[in-house]
Amino acid sequence: MCNLHKFTGYASKLTFLVNHHQFSTLGTSSAIGHLIYLKGKMMKITNMPPRALKAGEAATYLGISRRYLHDLCADGRIPYSKIGRRCHVFEIEELNRFLEEHKIKAAI
């Protein structure tokens, strides 16, 4: 399981606790205040735009098939990061740079 999924799951549980006031194990108002503070921090983190996209998302972003994206990677034309054995991620900045480098200027 990806760390983001674990984090999002934890954020959901924390949000539920804060919204439904289920703090029987915490006991003090300072703990409640701290949880509300953490909830706000997590909401800010999870609402950030992504820095990188998975292969399927990157292919959609570029308007190409996943297969063609993998061919471009194999040829070394698009940089990517490999997380684990099979997970390829593509930085949005690099995808934008790839699009700019392959832009065809209009003939006037």
Automatic annotation (TrEMBL):
A molecular function (GO) term: DNA binding
Residue span(s) of domain Helix-turn-helix: 53-102
Signal sequence coordinates: none
Origin: domain of life: Bacteria
Coiled-coil region(s): none
NCBIfam families reported in the protein's UniProt record: excise
Protein name: Helix-turn-helix domain-containing protein
